[in-house]
Design brief:
Biased composition (Basic and acidic residues): 138-149
Shape: flat
Protein name: DNA-binding protein
Helix content: 10-25%
CATH superfamily of the domain at 52-130: Nucleic acid-binding proteins
InterPro entries: BOBF_sf (IPR036700)
Radius of gyration: 28 Å
Region (Disordered): 126-174
Number of strands: 6
Strand order of the largest sheet: 3-2-1-4-5-6
Distance between the termini: 86 Å
Structural class: alpha+beta
CATH topology of the domain at 52-130: OB fold (Dihydrolipoamide Acetyltransferase, E2P)
Biased composition (Pro residues): 159-174
Order of helices and strands: HHEEEEEE
Length: 174
């Protein structure tokens, strides 16, 4: 007698069920590990506080510290006494503001092409909030700041490809 003949249908179903549970557990653990590996880490560079008036001269990652002077949904205007700068918080939670008016915050990011590109906002309690677009496949903004084919910062042309050429008319029969 072989073992398959002596195994009852209930025992076979139990083994199959345990194998299925085992595969689901391995898949869940593997999926969790993979999603954790691709999640953007909250890693802040050392704080290099720059006055807003000096942002145009700043290079690399900088931090601006000031009070929230104005708020427009997911946009904030930060005033540090030397100037003001607009902070784009990117898509944010419904009904949530990044920081209340008058709050003292620090915003870390890069100043490039006359615009501040924030990465993190730190409130008075020390809570770090990631800002801006989610990281793309090729880095923070997906295109490394290089212009696209249209000369702008977009990835592709503003319109679709050109239409195909018109079919040629058949030659007249002689």
């Amino acid at each position: 007698m072989s073992t398959s003949e002596t195994t009852s249908p209930v025992a076979r179903r139990l083994k199959l069920g345990l194998a299925a549970i085992g595969l689901l557990a391995v898949g869940g653990i593997g999926g969790g590990a993979i999603s954790h590996a691709f999640r953007p880490p909250i890693e802040m560079a050392p704080t290099h506080i720059v006055a807003i008036r000096d942002l145009a001269k700043a290079q690399g990652i900088v931090t601006v510290r000031g009070r929230v002077a104005e708020s427009f949904g997911d946009h904030l205007v930060v005033d540090d006494g030397t100037g003001r700068t607009l902070i784009d918080g990117g898509p944010h939670r419904d009904g949530d503001t990044l920081a209340p008016l008058g709050a003292v915050i620090a915003v870390q990011g890069r100043f490039d092409r006359d615009s501040f590109h924030p990465s993190f906002l730190v409130d008075a309690a020390g809570t770090v909030t990631p800002l801006g677009p989610p990281p793309g496949r090729h880095g923070h903004d997906g295109h490394h700041g290089h212009p696209g084919p249209d000369g702008d910062d977009m990835q592709g042309p503003d319109q679709g490809p050109p239409p195909p050429p018109a079919p040629k008319a058949p030659a007249p029969a002689a």
